[in-house]
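This part of the workshop introduces the protein records we will be handling. The question running through the whole workshop is how a given chain folds. To make this concrete, we reproduce a full record directly below:
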Amino acid sequence: MDNQLQRLFLMTITLLLIAPPAWSQQPKEEDTENRKTKELLTSSPQKPTALSQNPSQTLIQVTGVRLETTDKGIEVILETTQGDKLQPVNKSDDNNYIVDIPNAQLRLSSGDTFRQENPVKDITSVTVSNFDANTIRVMVTGEASTPQVELFDSDEGLIFTVAPIASTTQTPPTSETPPEPTAESQEPIELVVTGEQDGYRIPDASTATKTDTPIRDIPQSIQVIPREVLQDQGIIRVNDALQNVSGANNAGYYQGFSEYLSLRGFGADTYRDGIRSYQNYGGFLETADIERIEVLKGPASVLFGDAQPGGLVNLVSKQPLNQPFYSFEGTVGSFSTYRGAIDLSGPINQQQTVLYRFNAFYENAGSFRDFVNSDRLFFAPKLQLALSPNTTLTLDGVRLDETRTADDGLVAIGNRPANLPRDRFLGEPFQNVEIDVTNFSYLLNHKFNDQWSITNSFRAQFVNLARYYPLRDSLDEETGELSRLRYFSERKDNAYSTQTNVVGKFSTGSIKHQLLFGFEYTKITEDGTFGDFTPYPSINIFNPIYSRLEYPRQGIIDFFRNDNLDKYGFYFQDQIDLLTNLKLLAGGRFDIFEQTRSERNLGEEKQEFEQSDSNFSPRLGIVYQPTQNISLYASYTTSFEPTFATGRNGDGSPFKPETGRQFEVGVKADISSNLSATLALYDLRKQNVAADDPNSSDPNDQIQTGEQTSRGIEFDLAGEILPGWKVIGSYGYIDSFVSQDTTGLEGRRRDNVPKHTASLWTTYEFQKGSLQGFGLGLGVYFVGDRFGDLDNSYILPSYVRTDAALFYQRDNWKAAINLRNLFNTEYFLGSDGGRLQVQPGAPFSVSGTLSIEF
């Protein structure tokens, strides 16, 4: 084991041994009812341990939790077919009434937690979650005192009736003595727990805070794309999924092989379960094993370290289930597209302490572009072990093998993309990109008590990338002759990341805190070899004749490069409830970066570069909730991203890190329990931007010229308007330009950033009658005109694209037809920031999918 890995191992073990203070704050609860009454009060208020009570008992699955309004108030219903078999145990403390339900597990399509803030007057929140691998916890929090709770079961499941108790006249109930109703509580507020979270609205997210927090309590814009949206739209690529988010822009692919994600006019980074993913450096980002996509807009360095200012996209993976689940899916589509996928899950042992999940697919596809095709194989096994009632270990693996044609798209002539057929291919039929990605990770989660927990995660990522195709060099716009250079490269990128987070909840007087302390270490290595860039036969874009002249791969290698990067991050965060309707979020992170790079041309001496950087990234935000359904917020966030170790000014000094800062204000509204909206205004600026040096004859020389700005307005809407009618929509206005510059670019609009974008996707599924199970979907997407380069020399025209879907689901199977670009609109996704790579959008296409679940 080398020194770096030894250091990584020792740091991980040391942090696992950290034990925070164990002061606790234990909640409480109680029940009875007048229908089919069920005893909830027991002689022991202690937390049940399902395994110790009955190791052989099968866990009961609760598949839904929802809130329903009645003439008396609100009902909260836990949906299960075995409600009569649940044996709740109650306890209470302060304003919290708690019910622990052993031998049960919550399995919602949206995750492991249901939460509703301020459902009725005097009730602050209702939360249903998996307390551990074998216990469901229901917590009802009163505003002034512990609520009075009654319980009964029905054909729907387990039902709670909750009544608030006035703090001035009532004594909080104990687990031994249920309180007598008073005048204030004669009319109970019924809460029937049915919190099924299927649909387009997801109320909670972890990306912004690294804790499960209601989105309405987060002072920053965050949008969630649930699995159901991906399925309804027939989407399998992350970049395509972002069409549902305001401020996001799909600019196509960079150099024909890697995805580029953009938010609010700047680049965005990709994460998987909270850890940086390096897959998009070489492969398309897949959704086969993804449960939802959380999009955090704006700088996020406070918790994630070095990051682009646009934001981040966190892919939340599917988790193992405690009940057998088997899904098989097949898709056939236009351009000879064939894809088959499986999703398997369930318990491995009778006690259900070992769960698994396995996702896999194989895809073979052509393209609307001549000579372009792809072949992809993916599988992702996952194993979850309940080491104890309070400790779980999840082991995760991902493997992707991909071979496809590198495609740089079309070119620009004059002030527009060239007038060429969109299927025109300007490469060579033999050119390709070969990628294999392997990830191994674990997540260890331990709860010390109800208030304190610790998580430790580790991921090793290995990306091998080989590119073999002629590079475009220059274009004679009059003759159409496109000159090219021979090119071949191989890269091996390895990344090792570990992070430890400690979360604690406590109160200082009436003020509640949720503290987060964390440490992260990442080591990245890259070994690359590159071709000699000698001339290759040109091609005429108006009358292409392919030379088909293959050249030796290894025989043209003449440049070698090695990179090493070590990153250390220490961060803290405090989520503070100053009042029930006033919340403060404050945090900061200190990062240290150490970079080395070595370069060598064949036959020349090796050149060495070193650079060290450090940075402190603060964040401050506030949320005020004047009513139960409205959140007003404001925030200040920052970002930090080191430059490459070879970046140098004219005097030889290294470049400063690029930094970003954002001011944001907004409002979040829960229009109903199933429909929410966000309106945000922001001013986002990126400093220390590198640009070509106008005083140098070398086109590779750059200087840090100043600042680029994006400011705008965003609106997002997601949820269910009426039963069966779901919608997700967005509008974004971005004024993105060069705000400070010394090279003549000041005032120019940023390339590939439209001023206006809008999207609307809606589906309706018939709920009754002979058409029950049949549904329709319709989507409209507008992208305004954009400049294709920072010189603003040509325009990518605006467009409107229309998609549609038809589906029918019955029992355990579903058939769907997705129609993309229904009216065959010609459009362009974006460019690489120059004039030689312009990506055309796909024409009308059809795909059909048949899936079955057991």
Summary: The longest strand covers residues 488-508.
